[in-house]
Amino acid sequence: MGTPLPFRLTLASGSFGRRALLEQAGYTFAVQPADIDEPTDTAFGDIRHYVGDTAWRKAAKVAPTVADGLVLSADTVAWMHGHVIGKPVDRADAKRILQMLSGSVHELWTGVVLWHRPSDRQMIWQERSLVAMRAVSDAELEAYLDTNQWVGASGGYCIRETDDPFLTIVDGSMSNVIGLPMESLAVAFADWERILTPR
């Protein structure tokens, strides 16, 4: 179990994966999804700005409604050949995305924001992982699509923490691929504890 945080934590996300990661780490938190319109491609020309800006807008939506503590937001997307690979709009789109990823390596980026209330001081960072997908047969793809695990998932997939049949992390952390880089988040929480603890 994680060490209790010396501040209230509000997760500005409805992501089941992010909630599960925080719960597994032993953190206590409230959930308040931001529900913003996410862009379909990067207007900035690079993925680091894309995930950072989207995560910031999520935090900015929720922060004014929180009296005190830290608001945590994140945005995770796949990135390949200079384009965002977002959440599939339907089964046909999921099939198109997964066929594109099959037999290749892609980047998976997460932007994270910690927004302190009421001071409105902020900490923002981005983290990258590299994910390889083995070549997937048509039959395997159709069987996977039947599970509906692609629904609401960036890149059209939800990676298994152990023994994933299709995906391998080449570089970076598993938690980042799930949607929240827990290793760097723990460091950031410790930094906030030092900032907010009176000397």
From TrEMBL:
It is found in: Cytoplasm. Gene3D superfamilies: 3.90.950.10. It holds the Pfam family Maf. Its EC number is 3.6.1.9. It comes from the Bacteria. GO terms for molecular function: nucleoside triphosphate diphosphatase activity. Its cofactor is a divalent metal cation. The keyword Translocase does not apply. It is an enzyme of class 3 (hydrolase). The active site is at D75 (proton acceptor). Keywords: Cytoplasm, Hydrolase, Nucleotide metabolism. It catalyses: a 2'-deoxyribonucleoside 5'-triphosphate + H2O = a 2'-deoxyribonucleoside 5'-phosphate + diphosphate + H(+); a ribonucleoside 5'-triphosphate + H2O = a ribonucleoside 5'-phosphate + diphosphate + H(+). GO terms for cellular component: cytoplasm. GO terms for biological process: nucleotide metabolic process. Belongs to the Maf family. PANTHER family: BIFUNCTIONAL DTTP/UTP PYROPHOSPHATASE/METHYLTRANSFERASE PROTEIN-RELATED, BIFUNCTIONAL DTTP_UTP PYROPHOSPHATASE_METHYLTRANSFERASE PROTEIN-RELATED. Nucleoside triphosphate pyrophosphatase. May have a dual role in cell division arrest and in preventing the incorporation of modified nucleotides into cellular nucleic acids. This is Nucleoside triphosphate pyrophosphatase. It comes from Tuwongella immobilis.
